[in-house]
Automatic annotation (TrEMBL):
Organism per entry: Albimonas pacifica
Record-linked InterPro entries: ClpP/crotonase-like_dom_sf, Enoyl-CoA_hydra/iso
Gene Ontology biological-process entries: fatty acid beta-oxidation
Record-level Gene Ontology MF annotations: catalytic activity
Designated name of the protein: Enoyl-CoA hydratase
UniProt cross-references to Pfam families, sorted A to Z: ECH_1
Gene3D superfamilies: 2-enoyl-CoA Hydratase, Chain A, domain 1
């Protein structure tokens, strides 16, 4: 059987039991358009259904892991076969209906699928993981970060409550999650490790090797044991109201978009980009 071909990602098996998926839009700082997200979903499915794969690494081409969602260019969701019950033609409907369908499919829906993959996932992060980039890191089970890695969610500046995958209270704790959202300031790799969001911080030159070594160690365990351990941990999180929070946060996110359309005539508060640029220059 011919292996699938991809335009925005790479798929490889660098060691026994390990698959590595790499975001491959470095010229766009690995910003996520629809093509990349659907290819990433297909690659995750490929690894999940391959009995030879026990662990999945998610990486991004240099210089940055991912700058977030790519909101430029034409959008036509009918180009893709829906993965959830929200995609396809429903995402092309006018108004809030279409926008919610689109974001429920490619943002929240995909993240739910990836978080619940039946195999351990490891994010290999260098440079910046901003907004949608932070989402990709957050859905992974483990995180190995280079010393220069930064994690941020500046989207409150755009007049919404945060990104579509709202795991912040679990990832950072309530106080630090509020700081992340209220200020938009990034957490360094060292800070993120101290908060428990990052498992290991390593020199950038060693990032790929250290991540692969961790994956190889995990791959020595039986696949079913790994699956059960992951299910147990995710179910513990769900028992704390994790899925309820995701649904509520998405509703608030859509309210923010709707408010911005009424007040500003666009999905986001136009002052947001100005705020983010000004703060970036001040650093």
């Amino acid at each position: 059987m011919t292996a699938p071909s991809y335009e925005t990602i790479r798929y490889e098996t660098p060691a026994t039991g390990v698959a590595r998926i790499t975001l491959a839009r470095p010229e766009m700082r690995n910003a996520q358009n629809e093509d990349l997200l659907y290819e990433l979903d297909a690659a995750f499915d490929r690894a999940a259904h391959d009995p030879a794969v026990k662990v999945i690494i998610l990486a991004g081409d240099d210089p940055h892991f991912s700058s977030g969602h790519d909101l430029s260019g034409a959008r036509d969701m009918t180009r893709f076969t829906p993965v959830t019950s929200w995609g396809g033609a429903a995402a092309e409907e006018p108004g809030v209906s279409g926008r919610q369908a689109r974001e429920e499919e490619i943002y929240l829906g995909f993240c739910r699928r990836w978080r619940d993959l039946p195999k351990p996932t490891i994010a290999q992060v260098q440079g910046k993981a901003i907004a949608g980039g932070l989402m990709l890191v957050a859905v992974c089970d483990l995180v190995v970060a280079s010393e220069d890695a930064q994690f941020s969610d500046p989207t409150v500046a755009f007049g919404v409550n945060g990104v579509e995958w709202f795991s912040h209270p679990w990832d950072f704790g309530i106080r630090k999650a509020k700081e992340l959202l209220f200020t938009g300031a990034p957490f360094s790799a060292t800070e993120a490790e101290r908060m428990g969001f990052v498992n290991r911080v390593v020199p950038r030159a060693d990032l790929a090797a250290e991540t692969l070594a961790l994956a190889e160690r995990i791959a020595q365990r039986p696949a079913f044991g790994l699956r059960l351990a992951k299910q147990a941990m995710n179910q513990a999180q769900d028992a704390q109201g994790f899925q309820t929070v995701q649904a509520a946060a998405m509703s608030l996110h859509q309210m923010g978009h709707a408010h911005n359309e009424i007040v500003h005539g666009m999905l986001v508060d136009p002052k947001g980009a100005e705020i983010i640029r000004r703060e970036a220059k001040a650093k």
